[in-house]
Amino acid sequence: MHLVYPVVLSALLFCTGLYGVLARRNAILVLMSVELMLNAVNLNLVAFDVWLSKAAAETLHSGQALTLFTIAIAAAEIGIGLAIVLAVHRNRGTSDIDRLRDTAEGPESDGPDSGAPAAEKAEATT
């Protein structure tokens, strides 16, 4: 098998994952898209490892070893990421990335004008 086939498939998978990261609003779908991108990288690592092992006399299979490390890191990333998304969904009621804001912000701090009534109240009491 030629090297072109897995590389083109890997590029298509990576572009699909990149589109998913940039276009999706749901945090779980973004995590799935990141996993798709990591799997595209894994496919590239294994394809180039097989291609280079045919040319070299000594086969180290370093691409396959790196793929195992990437799979382990991806499993940890999805576990922690899913736990964070579930905790945010439990607290906020949504996993929509556009609706989520910093946890330090309150509901009344929408812009620079939101501090004006508080300043007027402080002046009125003194």
TrEMBL record:
Pfam families: Oxidored_q2 (PF00420). Residues 97-126 are annotated as: Disordered. InterPro entries: NADH_UbQ_OxRdtase_chain4L/K, NUOK/Mnh_C1-like. It catalyses: a quinone + NADH + 5 H(+)(in) = a quinol + NAD(+) + 4 H(+)(out). Its EC number is 7.1.1.-. GO terms for biological process: ATP synthesis coupled electron transport. Gene3D superfamilies: 1.10.287.3510. GO terms for molecular function: NADH dehydrogenase (quinone) (non-electrogenic) activity; quinone binding. NCBIfam families: PRK05715.1-2. NDH-1 shuttles electrons from NADH, via FMN and iron-sulfur (Fe-S) centers, to quinones in the respiratory chain. The immediate electron acceptor for the enzyme in this species is believed to be a menaquinone. Couples the redox reaction to proton translocation (for every two electrons transferred, four hydrogen ions are translocated across the cytoplasmic membrane), and thus conserves the redox energy in a proton gradient. Belongs to the complex I subunit 4L family. This is NADH-quinone oxidoreductase subunit K. It comes from Streptomyces shenzhenensis. The lineage of its organism: Bacteria, Bacillati, Actinomycetota, Actinomycetes, Kitasatosporales. The gene is nuoK.
